């Protein structure tokens, strides 16, 4: 005798037009009925032959569903008497059993943690990552993807075992070496390959620094205005942000700022983000000496200094730092393309080992074929020639943009700043001009 | 008149055999001398012609160095009277200037933060990621890299712009779709593409959950024994770990455990790590009901359930969860290869949007060409056939290993557990046997 009209229930919900195979559908429907206690424990199921005939489907379909339910413990076979819904509440452990009705508070609200809420509430990443007036995005249509494809294919032709398993040690060694060499020559960064950790980009580099060097409540100076990403990562890590005014020479702490020693100083010395000025040498020396005396960490975000259109690029702050208080970071997002997701972090000697370990624990490493391709791309000179080519192109475009600004705006009221370098420039608007209402 | 014998100093350190060009060397030596105050402010530099002749090098070499120093503000040209070392301490800001001697405490000890120290001190990732008896690593020599290379080359032949710029939204959409479909069919996961977030693997997935849903001091149940990575990520996030005994049916909380409601329950229901048992249906239901009643989050780590050698794979815990308390995670590290660094996180509907945002803020997204290749690999059926092939291969190897264990050990004293599934098995040793002293 059956206590529940199983075949009616199944006929009602089996969808013959569905892409899901009939046997999977059957299994799921019966499982749901058991979970919902529509089919209570100890219910005897019809024989597979009977059920198949009632549903006008093949017996194998039913057998599949029964076997799956059996294997998962939803039903049990009793010798000589058929298949029964299992009693799935264990005797050994008396876990409290909830009523079937859920608390509306649980079901209807999203319960992020406090730090999770901060991370999401202050999110700055735009959903638009391509097109006119999107700052910080290179012209990826110019990327020599044929060269890249050829190098990558070559790497993949005979990938060594080590390239396919987990990595360890801060990135693919030949890439660390070629990055160290590049940074020495072009950015006067003072480093060896062992100090370079390959990351997914600036955000991951900042996050890694905060995971290893910060505790909640620590204070960080940021430039005012500063990069939204740095601000949000700091805040999500529980670090207290102190915005510091910038002037034409860069970050410019006053007496009160200096009196409250921070643990971190976030700066963009080569090309202030977003205003574009270069930090003066005097300011650099003062900052280094302050950090050295007080044991602060300076985080140098050197995100787009490769594109300098007038004057020579200034050497990195890191290269001036005999005291080893500077953590230097850069990205291939601007020089190559953002979707690559590769960047680098250069650490003081004493921090290299713990950072490599931290990276491994937080994210594991790998991606050796990608990093090998990047190492080849740099080693064969394609990286430098791409940068040279793009510098000319962006320089020419900048000139056109500047001319248009000069032509269409009143130069005494509206002028561009930060046009010496980088992938964007900033317009200073007159005081009466609302910078938000013009835009959607 | 010159106050310092510059040319002697330079002759001493200029290295004619070095790969670094002479002009760069000259620039760096002079910069260092200025930074070290060996060349103090207001020192007049020799003319480029004089210095070149004293060093027996070309005048252009000297000019390059001077111009670089000039551009960076280390020296300044005074009209009509030559080039002088600049006074680099600014008047406008009186930053405290440290003595040149550094505090030994700063220079010689590594100052990690408390959470950074925890992360590094408890590190579990082995430097050996390949070879016999390395658990959790697939046989990457069997990966069909020719097929992969061909698919990847095709993706790169004409990459769309969106593939090269920053991504947004939880991963490359076609990959999210094919992963959702795969998980529905093969793991009975109840999800749509919008609930799938592509990550770099299990570690990043766990970390993302903790960044969004935990605050320091929250409590998490973990299985005892459990996966080292989960334990360390929890601890590094400031979450308090409560180890819960496992028995033959999986996690087995006692009355005291149940009384102290945790925020998280970390489990490996399909194949307990490392012991290998499957969580019973009864235990699953109890756990879900407990989580639902108390608003706990269950993190289901389904890391290698694809490789089941006997019986059918059990459906995922997530698929039983109408209460939406389960966050499901899996990885391509075992089914493809670890160096790929791709995994997936399946979220309750209400959490999808904040998690996508959180991922974007913490790591930015991209890697569309890689994810597109993966989507093609799955869409064309290569993924499923690779799993089938590897399941047979691993099954055969497991049999050989079991036979060897049976042959060489006394079965009453030493026996293997967890041999139904996965990439490893565990040996239970007799009580008198030291499990560490035998190994280096």
UniProtKB/TrEMBL annotation, chains A, B:
Keywords attached to this entry: Aminotransferase, DNA-binding, Pyridoxal phosphate, Transcription, Transcription regulation, Transferase
Cited CDD domains: AAT_like, WHTH_GntR
Presence of the UniProt keyword S-adenosyl-L-methionine in the record: no
Cell membrane in keyword set: no
Record InterPro entries: Aminotransferase_I/II_large (IPR004839), HTH_trans_reg/aminotransferase (IPR051446), PyrdxlP-dep_Trfase (IPR015424), PyrdxlP-dep_Trfase_major (IPR015421), Tscrpt_reg_HTH_GntR (IPR000524), WH-like_DNA-bd_sf (IPR036388), WH_DNA-bd_sf (IPR036390)
Pfam family, one: Aminotran_1_2
Ranges for domain HTH gntR-type: 20-88
GO molecular function, one term: pyridoxal phosphate binding
Family affiliation: In the C-terminal section; belongs to the class-I pyridoxal-phosphate-dependent aminotransferase family.
The protein, known as: PLP-dependent aminotransferase family protein
């Amino acid at each position: 005798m059956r206590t529940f009209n199983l075949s009616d229930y199944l006929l009602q919900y089996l969808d013959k037009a569905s892409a899901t195979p009939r046997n999977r559908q059957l299994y799921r429907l019966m499982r749901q009925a058991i979970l919902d206690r529509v089919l209570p424990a100890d219910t005897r199921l019809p024989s597979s032959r009977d059920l198949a005939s009632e549903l006008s489907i093949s017996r194998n379909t039913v057998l599949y569903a029964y076997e799956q339910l059996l294997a998962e413990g939803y039903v049990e076979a009793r010798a000589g008497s058929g298949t029964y819904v299992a009693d799935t509440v264990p005797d050994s452990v008396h876990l409290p059993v909830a009523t079937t009705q859920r608390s509306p508070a649980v079901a209807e609200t999203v319960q992020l943690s406090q730090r999770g809420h901060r991370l999401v509430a202050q999110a700055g990443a735009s959903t638009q990552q391509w097109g006119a007036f999107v700052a910080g995005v290179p012209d990826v249509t110019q990327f020599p993807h044929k060269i890249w494809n050829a190098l990558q294919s070559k790497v993949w032709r005979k990938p060594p075992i080590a390239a396919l398993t987990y990595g360890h040690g801060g990135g693919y060694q030949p890439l660390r070496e070629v990055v160290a060499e590049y940074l020495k020559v072009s950015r006067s960064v003072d480093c060896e390959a062992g100090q370079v950790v390959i990351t997914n980009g600036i955000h991951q580099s900042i996050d890694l620094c905060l995971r290893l060097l910060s505790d909640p409540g620590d204070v960080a100076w940021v430039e005012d205005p500063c990069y939204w990403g740095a601000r949000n990562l700091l805040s999500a890590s529980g670090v207290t942000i102190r915005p510091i005014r910038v002037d034409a020479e860069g970050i410019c702490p006053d007496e009160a700022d200096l009196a409250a020693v921070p643990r971190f100083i976030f700066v963009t010395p080569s090309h202030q983000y977003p205003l574009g000025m270069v930090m003066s040498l005097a300011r650099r020396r003062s900052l280094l000496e302050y950090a050295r005396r007080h044991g602060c960490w300076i985080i140098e975000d050197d995100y787009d200094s490769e594109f300098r259109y007038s004057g020579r690029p200034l050497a990195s702050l890191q290269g001036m730092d005999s005291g080893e208080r500077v953590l230097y970071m850069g990205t291939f997002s601007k020089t190559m393309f953002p979707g690559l997701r590769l960047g680098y972090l250069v650490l003081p000697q004493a921090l290299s080992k713990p950072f490599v370990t931290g990276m491994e624990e937080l994210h594991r490493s790998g991606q050796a074929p990608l990093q090998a391709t990047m190492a080849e791309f740099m080693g064969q000179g394609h990286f430098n020639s791409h940068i040279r080519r793009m510098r000319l192109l962006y320089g020419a475009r900048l000139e056109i943009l500047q001319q248009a600004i000069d032509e269409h705006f009143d130069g005494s009221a509206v002028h561009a700043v930060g046009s010496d370098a980088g992938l964007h420039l900033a317009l200073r608007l007159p005081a009466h001009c609302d910078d938000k209402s013009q835009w959607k």
